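To illustrate the input format used throughout this study, we show a single complete record. The first block contains the structure-token representation of the backbone; no residue identities are included at this stage. The design step must infer an amino acid for every position from geometry alone.
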């Protein structure tokens, strides 16, 4: 317990805190009380911050959602643009060098930890002095005034997320380029942007929708290192502080939130994939026709023969 680690606390204060937190009850009773508190949105009592864990998490979730949402949007836009060079490289030689350079860059970034990427960007910002390295600015200010503090963390997340998105989308576009529907579209005289937008991109739905679920579900786990490095007050720094302070209720609530986010994001992505991709729709099956019914439909000349 946290109070037992503080030598300045008296045994009476430790006993009173344990009674208030319900630590004298049995494990099942404490688990039941925690489930009820989660259902109410409290998430238990944070011994480290002295307040319910639920409102504390929701307050920090806004910063994480802004950072992760901005980063994912930038990474997806950049990945679509960079992956589009692969199908163009097969027909236009001038795009082959660009495709090879992008593949090399994605391999280098994919093998570099996000911590190293963040440290390199932080050192670059310290030398230039044009971008703030840490913090989020005054919380009373509007987001328009605080956006410079988002630049380095979001750029780090984009650099860490873009490589694997680029590789998956690039492979999906190359495979879709040789599909039958693309050959049929070219046979009808379609080409250029119309062929790319109406036939090539929809053919990558089997890859895009699972990637959307994975990227959205990993919001919390993907921002822990970046938020800690740049002192961004989000769920990642809250998880690190709760782990170091042994705040079990906050840790349990964040773990439950992260797992639920992964399940919901993947379920929504799979549902959207089944709705938009006709190949995944169930094919109606016909009931087998009994032998007597089949004999009724046999022509008489076949029976006579």
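Output of the design step:
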């Amino acid at each position: 317990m946290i109070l037992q680690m503080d030598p300045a606390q008296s045994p009476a204060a430790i006993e009173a805190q344990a009674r208030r937190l319900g630590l004298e009850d049995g494990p099942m009773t404490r688990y039941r009380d925690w489930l009820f508190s989660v259902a109410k949105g409290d998430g238990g009592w944070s011994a480290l911050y002295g307040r319910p864990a639920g409102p504390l998490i929701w307050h920090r979730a806004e910063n994480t959602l802004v950072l992760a949402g901005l980063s994912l949007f930038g990474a997806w836009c950049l990945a679509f643009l960079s992956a589009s060079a692969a199908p163009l490289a097969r027909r236009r030689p001038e795009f082959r060098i660009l495709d090879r350079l992008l593949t090399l860059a994605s391999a280098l970034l994919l093998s570099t930890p996000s911590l190293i990427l963040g440290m390199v960007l932080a050192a670059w910002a310290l030398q230039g002095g044009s971008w703030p390295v840490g913090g989020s600015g005054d919380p009373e200010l509007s987001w328009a005034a605080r956006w410079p503090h988002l630049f380095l963390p979001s750029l780090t997340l984009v650099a860490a997320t873009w490589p694997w998105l680029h590789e998956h989308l690039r492979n999906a576009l190359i495979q879709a380029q040789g599909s039958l529907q693309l050959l049929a579209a070219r046979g009808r005289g379609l080409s250029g942007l119309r062929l790319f937008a109406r036939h090539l991109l929809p053919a990558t739905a089997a890859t895009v929708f699972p990637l959307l679920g994975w990227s959205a579900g990993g919001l919390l786990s993907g921002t822990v290192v970046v938020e800690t490095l740049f002192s961004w007050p989000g769920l990642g720094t809250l998880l690190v502080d709760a782990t170091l302070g042994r705040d079990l209720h906050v840790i349990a609530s964040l773990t439950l939130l992260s797992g639920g986010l992964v399940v919901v994001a993947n379920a929504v992505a799979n549902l959207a994939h089944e709705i938009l991709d006709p190949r995944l729709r169930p094919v109606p099956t016909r009931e087998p026709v009994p032998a007597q019914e089949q004999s009724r439909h046999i022509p008489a000349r076949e029976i006579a023969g």
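Structural context for interpreting the output: Confidence is low (pLDDT under 50) at residues 1-5. The chain is about 70% helix and 0% strand.
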